[in-house]
Please model this.
Amino acid sequence: YQRRVRGVSIEKQAKTSSGVPVLIHKCVIYLEDKIDHEGIYRISGVKSRYEGLKLKCNQNIHDVVFDDENISINDVASLLKLFFRELPVSLLAPWYLQLTNAMEIEDETEKLYQIQDII
Model:
């Protein structure tokens, strides 16, 4: 598994013992105590700070520590969003066509059944 995160497929990311990519795990652990913060995923962080975090993650994700003195909640949330955007293959790509077809079903019950079946 890779120690880097940028441009590495989700399958090859360094993972925790529970199988979650380390970057996702670190971001979620940091953010879960701050979930009441308004606009946590809507308000962008400071680009220079979350880009700096990204560089550190690409050097060695295991050494990255989020501390409240140098970063904000929004910096970590922006890093997490950036991670998902920069994946070489979208997480939803395998199901995209199926989901778009299901969304075109007019019968709401059938539509929900199809979506649930895909998920």
Notes: The helical segments are 22-32, 47-60, 73-85, 96-103, 108-118.
